[in-house]
Amino acid sequence: MKYVYIVLVGILVSCASPKQFTNEALKENLLTLDRKPITFQEVLEKNKGKKIFAQFFASYCPVSQDSFDDVLKFQKENPDHTFIFLSVDHSYYDWKRGLEYVKPKGQFYYIEEKGDGALGKFLKLKSIPRFLKIDEQGNIVVYKTSKVSDKLK
Predict the structure, then answer these.
(1) pLDDT (tens digit per residue) in 59-94
(2) 85 CB-contact burial (10 Å; exposed 0-12 / middle 13-18 / buried 19+)
(3) Where are the domains of the chain?
(4) pTM, 2 dp
(5) Fold of 19-152
(6) Is 97 in contact with 90 (CB distance < 8 Å)?
C-alpha cells in the first residue's frame, strides 16, 4: 500500500504545472518588430510588476486568427494586463506581413526557434494558439490553455 501511495504522489507531482521559467527558456532569443534581438527574460524584466497575458500564435493559423476576437474582448475587460504576443510563424517576413491582420494590440515578438527552442520545449508547445498568464513577480499562474477563458481571469 505504501508503494502505491508513493507512485501516486510521484504522478501528481510530475503532472503539476511549473510556476517558474527555466533559465534556458528565459535565455531564448526573440526578435522585436524592428528585428532587434531580445531574450524572453528581457521581455519579462521589461514588464516586471505587471500582470501579463501571453499568446503564442502564428499569423497564418486559422485557429489563432479566430482567437483574436476573444483576446480583444479579454483586453477590454482586463485593461490592467500587459499583452505579449509571441509568434511561431515560418519566417520573420511572414510574421511581419501577417501582423496587419492581428487585431489585438500589445507587444509583439517573433520566436526564431519556433517550438523547437528552449522556450517551446519548456512549454511543450505542440499546438497554437496557446495562452499563459504571468503574475507581477514573473510566476506562471496559468501554464496551459488553448482558449481565452475564465481560467485566465
Answers:
(1) 999 999 999 999 999 999 999 999 999 999 999 999
(2) buried
(3) 19-152
(4) 0.87
(5) Glutaredoxin (3.40.30)
(6) no
